[in-house]
Amino acid sequence: MRRKWLWLLKNTLNRVTIRAARSGHGPFSLVRHVGRKSGKTYETPIMVARVPEGFIAELTYGEDVNWYRNIVAAGRCELLVDGQWHQVSAIEPYPSAAGRDAFGYPAKLVLQVLQRHEFRLLRTG
């Protein structure tokens, strides 16, 4: 069931959110990553929050999604935020409370109500 849900997102909603991320408007950013098996370049829309060390991503679907597994394997990726590309040099676990706080209100409240607790720091610079 989960695989079908992810396929549906990839082939419908992701197409719209990729366009939104490219435009630099709205809440979406774009992570560009290289497939760990295929070597092919992919772009996946995600939502991030800016912090001094880089950006915080919430792992809505957990660690078993391809974009996350690909950047962990590569140790890097590129991130398009507000129309500007950033080089991500590392990905690290991030404390749950600090991760929710990084998103500010009302997103912080939504993340708390949904009991989201898997956050990652996408370190830049």
Between the first and last Cα atoms, what is the distance in angstroms? 39 Å
> What is the CATH architecture annotation?
Roll
Count of structural domains: 1
Structural class: alpha+beta
Protein name: Nitroreductase family deazaflavin-dependent oxidoreductase
Organism: Nocardioides luteus
InterPro entries: AS_cat/multimer_dom_body (IPR024074), F420H2_quin_Rdtase (IPR004378), Split_barrel_FMN-bd (IPR012349)
GO molecular function: argininosuccinate synthase activity; oxidoreductase activity
Characteristic key phrases:
argininosuccinate synthase activity; Nitroreductase family deazaflavin-dependent oxidoreductase; Pnp Oxidase, Chain A; F420H2_quin_Rdtase; seven-stranded antiparallel sheet; AS_cat/multimer_dom_body; 125 residues; alpha+beta
Written account of the structure:
The chain has 125 residues and is of the alpha+beta class. It has a single domain (2-124), classed as Electron Transport, Fmn-binding Protein, Chain A (Pnp Oxidase, Chain A, Roll), CATH 2.30.110. The protein is built from five helices and seven strands. The protein has helices at residues 2-11, 13-23, 66-74, 96-103, 107-113; strands at residues 29-34, 41-46, 48-51, 54-58, 77-81, 84-94, 119-124. It has a seven-stranded antiparallel beta sheet, sandwiched between helices. Strand 1 and strand 2 form a beta hairpin. The longest helix is centred in the N-terminal third of the chain and has 11 residues, at 13-23. The termini are far apart. The model has no long low-confidence stretch (mean pLDDT 89). This is Nitroreductase family deazaflavin-dependent oxidoreductase. InterPro entries: AS_cat/multimer_dom_body, F420H2_quin_Rdtase, Split_barrel_FMN-bd. One of its GO terms (molecular function) is oxidoreductase activity.
